[in-house]
């Protein structure tokens, strides 16, 4: 992951639900109050939430807040993914679905989540590859378009790279026929 | 920053390399030997066949000074056999590449041309895989580019060219579907090894980006689980060491 990777920066901006454990008097502007009380629930961007969650002031002090899994990785979404990965428009959950999910896997010990994500990615990749190959023949429309609209950024990149290869081969084949 | 070029050969580069393949031509005019960087070409004497690089053969073909003899594997019969193999016999792996060339001795045995007593051991770009000496029923490394170029520039030399063309389409589709299904089987990523034996240069150039991206994505998703597993294994390993030490103490 490069320092200048725009997708990584935008993934950092995704909101994560957190619960404050400490009294923080000077962060009231985060939820338009005079100061954050313990137990306040707040959506913070991933970069900030991660820093708070991993920070601890002293020896046996708690971190200032605890994280919960974002709504795009909720039980319902995971159940739907387990049932049929292809039927879920991931982009509606989050444009950086896999990016956020991978960061969450780093923070939480979630074996099952990791397995579900892997199956989802691989199964959907097969369809992405098929669409990347057939993009020109079928045109844009019908069922394919709906599926492609539901791709998250990782899958869009996958589609682009798959399509580039097919396009290169097609261009060469057309050139040979013309010359 | 590195050059923004994709990893590996792009399709047009693979096709450029394919032009170095030797093909058999039947010359129509005499032509003296030409000194090339890769060696000198054989002298062309009209009724005798000779092997030339593909680019030179196509040039001579365009000038109507030679006819190209297509290799045996480009015959519709051979292609149909391969299509059957790809779609019915082995639906998971690709058809195997052509076997290494053998030569029969006079006693009824055959021996590999590349056997240990040969001075030079040849590898694919220098092996005749597109001349008339190539065996039927197996696709060489540059099959797709070679067939396309031959059909584009010398379609009158290829027997039943339209049938060959449609068989090649079938092959291309069947094989690209295999590539997709192979790389996107959830269970195949556990082992981490996928055989790509028999895949052609153009197919590799075409699907390299996609395959690499899928593998990259799977790796990223599994990265944290992998580090966790490693740590656990290390702890476990230490425990086992302790046990063995205890045993030694007893």
Automatic annotation (TrEMBL), chain A:
Gene Ontology annotations of biological process type: mitotic DNA replication initiation
CDD domains for the chain: GINS_A_psf3, GINS_B_Psf3
Main location: nucleus
GO cellular component, one term: GINS complex
Keywords assigned by UniProt, alphabetized: DNA replication, Nucleus
Pfam families: PSF3_N, Sld5
Domain GINS subunit: 72-173
Source superkingdom: Eukaryota
UniProt-annotated location(s): Nucleus
InterPro entries named in the record: GINS_A (IPR021151), GINS_bundle-like_dom_sf (IPR036224), GINS_Psf3 (IPR010492), GINS_Psf3_sf (IPR038437), PSF3_N (IPR055221)
Keyword set includes Transmembrane helix: no
Residues of the DNA replication complex GINS protein PSF3 N-terminal domain: 4-53
Membrane-crossing residue ranges in chain numbering: none
Function in brief: The GINS complex plays an essential role in the initiation of DNA replication.
Family to which this protein belongs: Belongs to the GINS3/PSF3 family.
Oligomer status and interactors: Component of the GINS complex.
UniProt-recorded name of the protein: DNA replication complex GINS protein PSF3
UniProtKB/TrEMBL annotation, chain B:
Domain DNA replication complex GINS protein PSF2 N-terminal residues, every copy: 11-69
GO CC annotation: GINS complex
Compositional bias of kind Acidic residues: 232-250
SUPFAM superfamilies (UniProt xref): GINS helical bundle-like, PriA/YqbF domain
Region (Disordered): 222-250
Function: The GINS complex plays an essential role in the initiation of DNA replication. Has a role in chromosome segregation.
Protein name: DNA replication complex GINS protein PSF2
